[in-house]
Amino acid sequence: MNDQVTHDRYGLGVVIGVEDEVAVLVDFGSRRERITTPFHKLYKI
């Protein structure tokens, strides 16, 4: 958690939760998104 990530659609964010390698909850500042596997558009910075 607290890893900085970037997403092709949502931009820069911080991982605030992990759901057993099935999904991550990311805070993108103006919104929070639950990103499910596979994480094709999500990259760790």
Give a verbal description of the structure.
By secondary structure, the protein is an all-beta fold. The chain has one domain (4-37). The chain is 0% helix and 58% strand. The protein is built from no helices and five strands. It has strands at residues 4-7, 11-19, 23-27, 32-36, 42-44. The chain has a five-stranded antiparallel beta sheet with strand order 4-3-2-1-5, with no helix packed on it. β3 (23-27) and β4 (32-36) form a beta hairpin. It is globular, with a radius of gyration of 9 Å. The model has no long low-confidence stretch (mean pLDDT 96).
Structure keywords:
5-stranded antiparallel beta sheet; 45 residues; mainly beta
Main beta sheet, described?
5 strands, antiparallel
Estimate the strand proportion.
Answer: over 45%
Structural class: mainly beta
Number of strands: 5
Q: How widely separated are the two ends?
A: 13 Å
pLDDT below 50 for ≥5 consecutive residues: which ranges? none
Order of helices and strands: EEEEE
Gyration radius, to the nearest Å? 9 Å
**What helical percentage do the residues reach?**
under 10%
Whole-number tally of structural domains: 1
Widest beta sheet: strand line-up: 4-3-2-1-5
